[in-house]
Design goal:
Pfam families: DHDPS. Its EC number is 4.3.3.7. It catalyses: L-aspartate 4-semialdehyde + pyruvate = (2S,4S)-4-hydroxy-2,3,4,5-tetrahydrodipicolinate + H2O + H(+). The protein has helices at 4-10, 30-42, 62-76, 91-104, 121-134, 153-159, 175-185, 199-205, 215-230, 234-255, 259-267, 284-296, and strands spanning 13-17, 47-50, 82-85, 108-111, 138-143, 165-170, 190-193, 209-212. The chain is α/β, with parallel strands linked by helices. It has one domain (4-232): Aldolase class I (TIM Barrel, Alpha-Beta Barrel), CATH 3.20.20. The longest helix is centred in the last third of the chain and has 22 residues, at 234-255. 49% of the residues are buried.
């Protein structure tokens, strides 16, 4: 069983945000999920985040969320860390999911602040403290605008004092806040960049890794970008970004997520399937445009 201290050391490199594949009837594609996990490991992912925002957890039942946790843990078999997203607006559901993650042998859990309702910083702090007190498992806090409750760098430094909070996925794209987070919390907690867009500057200023939503189908490219930063070759890292991921990122404004990632995976023959409501699939015209981008990136031969 991975301890919180061990997870803090292991949360480095490319942490793949796992897309949840569905069948055409919208049921879970269990075999497809297993294949995708193996594929990402083979291409160099350093860790898996299962059941996250782009894994469509908000469109799943509690039973489905637990099932994909179990599939991931059983498939990965401790080769790399598996972190399960236990985010929920109700602390008891969050604790229930975290206890299950620990029971099945997950390495850690990821948790946003409570969402939808606007809460105070003290309310957010007590939320994380309650999770810490209820379950002895490493926690990666996640600062995301999707929650509606922003975590300032000062607040991140505060929750870093909670024993099991060992990492933070910093999702802001405000460069000053990204830098301030390193200044205030970089020596207390493992900082993970929350998007490929900010990965190169974040890694340059002291972040230990980056999450990646696109590593479900372009793992090798994201891993190469990360490795270039670790070798101190930031020009190479930037070239990989702009010559590859950059055009895809611009397309995201048209297609949105997770629909774009799933469409790309389907085009490339990687199990993904449809999105569940309220997410809509791409139009045929957008799929055609996306196919051209994948060809120019060298992903589609």
């Amino acid at each position: 069983m991975t301890t919180s201290a061990q997870l803090r050391e292991q949360m480095k490199g490319v942490q793949s945000i796992v897309i949840t594949p569905f069948k055409e009837d919208f049921s879970l594609d269990i075999e497809g999920l297993k294949q995708n996990l193996e594929r990402m490991i083979n291409f160099g992912s350093n860790g898996m985040v299962i059941g996250g925002s782009l894994g469509e957890f908000s469109s799943m039942t509690m039973e489905e969320r637990k099932l994909i946790f179990k599939i991931a843990v059983d498939t990965v078999k401790s080769r790399i860390p598996v972190v399960c997203n236990v985010s929920d607006s109700y602390i008891e559901r969050t604790i229930q999911l975290a206890k299950y993650a620990k029971e099945i042998g997950a390495d850690g859990v990821m948790c946003t602040p409570p969402y939808y309702q606007k809460v105070s910083e003290e309310g957010m702090y007590q939320f994380y403290k309650a999770l810490n007190d209820a379950v002895d498992i490493g926690i990666m806090a996640y600062n995301t605008s999707r929650s509606g409750n922003h975590m300032t760098p000062k607040f991140i430094a505060r929750i870093a004092e909670i024993p099991n909070v060992v990492a933070c996925k910093q999702g802001t794209r405000d460069i000053e806040e990204l830098e301030e987070t390193v200044y205030l919390a970089g020596d207390k907690i493992t900082l993970i960049c929350g998007s490929e867009v900010m990965a190169v500057p974040c890694l340059a200023m002291g972040y230990k890794g980056t999450t990646s939503t696109s590593s479900s189908f372009m793992t090798e490219m994201i891993v190469a970008m990360y490795k270039a930063t670790q070798e101190g070759d930031y020009k190479k890292a930037a070239d990989i970004y702009f010559n590859g991921w950059g055009e895809y990122r611009r397309f995201l404004k048209k297609g949105g997520m997770p629909a774009t990632a799933k469409a790309a995976m389907n085009i490339l023959g990687i199990p993904a399937g449809p999105t569940r409501l309220p997410f809509l699939e791409l139009s045929d015209d957008l799929k055609k445009e996306l196919k051209g981008i994948l060809e120019r990136m060298g992903l589609l031969k």
